[in-house]
Amino acid sequence: MIFTLRLASGRILKFIGAISKTFSYIFHSVVPHHRFRIPAQSNAIWLRDNEKDHIPRTLWQTNYTEKVTFPVYINYLVNRLMGFSFNYRFMTTGDRMNYIKDNFSSDIYDCYRKLQIGAAQADLWRLLVIYREGGVYMDIDAHAVWPLEFLVARHHELFIATKKGELSNYFLAACPYDPHVKRVIDTVISNIRENKIYGVFDMTGPGAMNVALSMGEVNSIPNRSVCIQGSFSNEYFQYIDKKEGKWTRQQKTTRVVGS
């Protein structure tokens, strides 16, 4: 029953998102340079006492800039609503660099600095921040389909699985120092050091996660009942101020790992 309700909620949000995107094209044609600001942090509307050893009530997100278009901002507001019991933390490209420098070894920091594509940097950062701090991570164009409080309740970790039966990394929830997250970190760091893999997906993204982990050993739920992407935003609105464009285009001319 709950699974069905989550699917229905996701469909409703997709419908609302489609209307929002249509309006966004009109809005940004009238005021093409107007941007909305995502705050670096925002406190929970209602913060319940977190049970010991359960996932901390913090939602983490990142983007190359905090100044975003209308649909990306609406997506953020949806997540604040769905994460009413979560503190919110947001980092830009520079913030991520400083966070890793201040909180991790020089070896990990050096590996991070070698990544030349923002999406690859975000891939490693999300693993590191969830491993150290715990909480929930979602891509900037992703949104929960159900209140996060009820999605992560009684879980120590939560991964999402695609229709293909593979793990994805656009949503990740775990307690601090989760051993499965650590295994993915080790795989990504090894990939960076060896630098034998082409493409962000397999170097730092879902490909690396599926090499490190198998579906049967982690707590995973179908993505469409947890978190979906692209309902409110799309590539145009997300990368409108980034001349390099999406990572799928950038990696055609730029190596993922530099010297």
List descriptors.
single chain, 259 residues, alpha/beta, Spore Coat Polysaccharide Biosynthesis Protein SpsA, Chain A, seven-stranded mixed β-sheet, 11 helices, 11 strands, 46% helix, 16% strand
Describe the structure.
The chain has 259 residues and is α/β, with parallel strands linked by helices. The longest helix has 29 residues, at 2-30. The chain has helices at 2-30, 70-82, 93-103, 106-114, 118-133, 148-152, 179-194, 200-203, 206-212, 235-238, 247-250, and strands at 36-37, 41-42, 58-62, 67-68, 87-91, 135-138, 142-144, 157-161, 167-174, 220-222, 227-229. The chain has one domain (2-250): Spore Coat Polysaccharide Biosynthesis Protein SpsA, Chain A. It is globular and about 45 Å long. Helix 1 packs antiparallel against helix 2, helix 5 (118-133) runs antiparallel to helix 7 and helix 7 (179-194) packs across helix 9. The mean pLDDT is 95.
Number of domains: 1
- Distance between termini? 52 Å
From the 3D structure, determine the CATH topology.
Spore Coat Polysaccharide Biosynthesis Protein SpsA, Chain A
Which residues form runs of ≥5 with pLDDT under 50? Answer: none
CATH architecture identity: Alpha-Beta Complex
What's the helix count? 11
Binned, the helix content reads 40-55%
Structure classification: alpha/beta
CATH class categorisation: Alpha Beta
Q: Assign an overall shape.
A: globular
Number of E-state strands: 11
Helix and strand pattern: HEEEEHEHHHEEHEEHHHEEHH
Described by strand count, sense and barrel closure, the largest sheet is:
7 strands, mixed
Q: Overall pLDDT, averaged?
A: 95
